[in-house]
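Per-record layout

source: Mucilaginibacter oryzae
name: Lysophospholipase L1-like esterase
length: 239
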Amino acid sequence: MRIVILNLVTIFALSACVNKNTPTPNGYITPTKPAIVAQDTLTYLALGDSYTIGEDVPHDQNFPNLLAQQGYSIKILAPTIIARTGWTTDELIEAINQSEVKNKTYDMVTLLIGVNDQYRGMSQDNYRGKFQQLLHTAIKFAGGNHSHVFVLSIPDYGVTPYANGRGDTISPQIDQFNAINAAISTENHVNYIDITGISRLAANDLTLLASDGLHPSPKMYQMWVDKLKVDVAKVFLKQ
């Protein structure tokens, strides 16, 4: 793939975003020289459940499609999505095994899974093993490049109207499942994006929820993407 030098306007914008005095969601980035796009087109696979497919929102407003629409100097192709409402880790594994993409590779892969394991009362030990299996699969999809895999934490639906006051039970359990996926992500040297805090803002802002009172609205998805795209830029835009 050809190397593309960013135009001056893009370089200025990127430099402003990574000024050493400017905090990002993941800390501070110190620029060393103008950014160069490593490759000009990225293929993208998104693995997950309802939070990935975008239950109760237009398909082009789920987070994978919003990420692809961000206007990077890198073009992210329309994502291939393997996700369905209600899927647990077991069901995602089965769906991948039955899919036509199981032997393909992609430039970047996102993984967000686990809320239905918690919701159905499945054990954390089962989740630990199945999440690790899925993460290894995601790394394989990324051609073995760990830095091209992006794990998103599980949102906290305990703050939503759907939870009907059960947040004191749900939220701690979500934290426990996220502790598992965060530890495994760290062990495997992939990118980990904590969006659980963003999801909890819905406790005081219902515009962050879709009309079902449970799933994210496009507004919340954009907040996830604003955080996710920082890590995507760090990986695919060389300093």
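summary: The two ends are 19 Å apart (CA to CA). Residues 167-187 form the longest helix (21 residues).
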